[in-house]
Amino acid sequence: MVEKLLLCVCCSLVFLTCNLSAQDLKIKFSDRSIQEGEIFTITLTVPTKKVKEISPFPEIEDFSKKRTIFHRERKEDIFIAEQEYLPSKPGVFTLPSFTISVNGQTYRFNGTKITVAPGKKSLEQISEDKAGKKEEFSPSELDAMFLVESNQKSVFVNEGFVLSASFLVAKDNPSEYNFVDLNKQVTYIIQDLKPADCWIEEITSPGELKKDTVKFHNKVYNRYRLYKVCLFPLGAGTINIPSTGFKILTYATLRTKNEIERKDEFKMFKSGGIAIQVLPLPEHPLMDSVAVGTAELQTNIWKKVLEVNEPLKVSLKLTGMFNPALAEMNVKESRDFEIYPEKEDLKKDERGSDIQFTKVFNYEFLPKNSGNIKLADCFSLIYFNTSSKTYDTLTPKFMIYVKGERKSEYISSHEDGFYQLIDKSSNRLRQGERDDLTKVLTNIIILFMLVTTIILIIKR
After folding, report:
1. Quick one: which H or E segment has residue 310?
2. Is the entire prediction scored with pTM above 0.90?
């Protein structure tokens, strides 16, 4: 029993010691308002000299890493690591929260903002100052690639295909790297990826960087998704997507016992060109105005049995891969019902390399006569099905049962609906003499009532 108690006490002491060490790990930033050409420094203090392994310091966009300095204080049992950064341009920059691993244990720290004012000394001058050094730097061994991919090699006119631009870095890559002028580079990439003869549906916003992990040629990569777009060609022929480039900042390194010095190296990665064959659609009277692709139609209604003149909300959800601008519901007019369109909803979902569109058509359905009404006789959508390579029509499957008689003699005496009556009503101007006479009589009555009220108040 005593041995178990001592073991628990020892374990608790070790746990408390580890927590204390984690709390004593400190990060310090140098002056966060600097000039272009000046160094910004992050200093890490570890409360032990026995540091066997430490992970790289974080990257800061539009900053390049310079020296990393390690030293141990003899008088105190601490280890200090310093990372120097050099800004590439003036501005206000954000260092988000970051992690650093020490001896296999990861610690999280809060970020900060750095303000860089325009300076007199340029980056080129700084490079010239260091050019006199005789030490040889080891070149970067960045294991990476820049890819522009299409999910289709051949499509029909108005059929969508997805283009994506990604930067891939091997997960076991040993070299450090940083993005430079990301928004400007993505803007140039977008210009190269957007053909002139296509309808465009943006999937990601320019500058929106998404990171995930993929397996490519039996190797695991960190993938940075730079841009993704869905294109719908407007004419037959060949769409040529040219080769485009993406520039990365990496570093040649010079290592000594207590210091790592870095020299900027810019590497340009090129994508391959892509050719997409666009096939003409089979002849059809609506071939230029119907959606092309794959689609399913779902119907949502809250009841099937109605009274005459009882409104019903009808929601028709179209899901698939199609141009939402061309996907339009055909609505039939009838004396037995009235249909009023409401707001449409559009949603885009990424499904791996593909895209799924969901377009919802909302209507208010108002029956005017009793009887059975097939919704298929009210709504229809024609499209070209790329799976069967035929034109197809989607219709809702429900039947509406309407009971009762018209609730108003006025309504029963007019076969046309309210909006049809508006169209048939005369818009000719008529004289307003009768209206003026009515106004005069009304004003006299109001004046009489007001005088009577005042007299009664005075008598009281």
Report:
1. none
2. no
Q: What is the residue-averaged pLDDT of the chain?
A: 83
* Burial of residue 120 (number of CB atoms within 10 Å: 0-12, 13-18, 19+): exposed
Residue 75, SS3 per DSSP: coil
Assigned token pair, 230: 């869905």
Question: SS in 3 state form for 94-124?
Answer: EECCEEEEECCEEEEECCEEEEEECCCCCHH
Report whether 272 contacts 148 (CB < 8 A): yes
Domains 2-130 and 291-424 share a fold: yes
Q: Which two tokens stand for residue 285?
A: 């009277």
3-class DSSP state for residue 150?
strand
The domain segmentation of the chain, as residue ranges, is 2-130, 144-279, 291-424
Work out the burial of residue 2: count CB atoms within 10 Å of its CB; fewer than 13 is exposed, 13-18 middle, 19 or more buried: exposed
Q: Tell me the pLDDT tens digit for each residue of 287-320.
A: 999 999 999 999 999 889 999 999 999 999 999 9
Residue 153 neighbours by CB under 8 Å, 6+ apart: 276, 277
| Domain spanning 2-130, CATH architecture | Sandwich (2.60)
CA distances from 398 to 299, 300, 316, 318, 361 (A): 8, 9, 11, 16, 16
